[in-house]
Amino acid sequence: MKKVLGHLLVAGTVMMVGAVSAFSADRDASLYAGNKSCGMCHKKAEKGDQLGKWQASPHAKAFESLGSPEAKAAGAKVGVDDPQKSGKCLKCHSTAYNFTEAVATDKITPEEGVACESCHGPGKNYKSKAVMEDQAKCIAAGMVYPATKSCELCHNDKSPTWKADRYTTKAGVKTGFDVEQAVEKIKHPDPTVKK
Ligand code: HEC
Ligand code: HEC
Ligand code: HEC
Ligand code: HEC
Fold first, then answer.
1. For position 51, what pLDDT does the model report?
2. How many CB atoms lie within 10 A of CB 69?
3. Higher-scoring residue by pLDDT: 2, 60
4. CA dist 136 to 123, 126, 131, 194, Å?
5. Which residues line ligand 2 (CB under 6 A)?
């Protein structure tokens, strides 16, 4: 958590100096591998079918939902005519924009929404079998671990539909995002991996 906030602060400082977006996770877009690549090895039912679980999750529909009347209304408030074409929305609603206001990779289309690598980090250097089987090697090759470090890059009050009371923590406190409960809704564990 601290680390994510640090990232945002650093990115904010960079913006004052250069033209880099204030909302940057500082990830190298040329290292995206794409969901097809991840899905090739992560769709077996006996290993938890991460691809299928993601396809059924809100993240896979993050582009589609920008076409809804609700999205149009949220866009209108900030001067955005067509949310499905605006970097102001797609920076959080698609991996292809890599947290910026422009398309940053052709390995993933904006239509794919928030893909595997928005949470796990660009995978080109960690997706080989030999690296994947060794967690330390994955992290060294750029895997974001735990992936929960990524959530608040998008789940924050810069979201135009942010509701500060969307979640109620176990302690009864209202909050816009509660990582523990949010992970429960999107988790895709591999039952064959010992925890
Ligand atoms: C060549 C096949 C292959 C590809 C391609 C692949 N993976 Fe993996 N992945 C594995 C294997 C094997 C493991 C080890 C666990 C297991 O046996 O299921 C693993 C483990 C993981 C883990 C758990 C890491 C840990 O140590 O907790 C994550 C997260 C993951 N993969 C994400 C991805 C993402 C994201 C992509 C795409 C960028 C990807 N994988 C591409 C085969 C692959
Ligand atoms: C800072 C990241 C961010 C930006 C920028 C962003 N969104 Fe979102 N959006 C989210 C997140 C995260 C959610 C999931 C709900 C939540 O936690 O706020 C979401 C959910 C939504 C929803 C579903 C409604 C809901 O409450 O679940 C709509 C519609 C939407 N966004 C429209 C837009 C539009 C239109 C824009 C551009 C004007 C936009 N978003 C820009 C992060 C963002
Ligand atoms: C919204 C963020 C998010 C997205 C999108 C996402 N994951 Fe994950 N994934 C997580 C979290 C959180 C975990 C729990 C472990 C961790 O924190 O790294 C996880 C765990 C995993 C694991 C390890 C399972 C285990 O039990 O060891 C694999 C494999 C994996 N994800 C693959 C994928 C693949 C493949 C995709 C895309 C099809 C994907 N993930 C999309 C957040 C995400
Ligand atoms: C790249 C931006 C991005 C990242 C990173 C991200 N999300 Fe999301 N998330 C979204 C957007 C956008 C939506 C809204 C999808 C829609 O309905 O259009 C969303 C929706 C959700 C929802 C459904 C709304 C709600 O709050 O119940 C959950 C749950 C969720 N995300 C959990 C997570 C978790 C857990 C992580 C980190 C492991 C994470 N997300 C990382 C962008 C992101």
1. 98
2. 7
3. 60
4. 14, 10, 9, 16
5. 65-66, 68, 70-71, 74-75, 78, 80, 83, 86, 88-89, 91-93, 154-156, 158-162, 166, 177
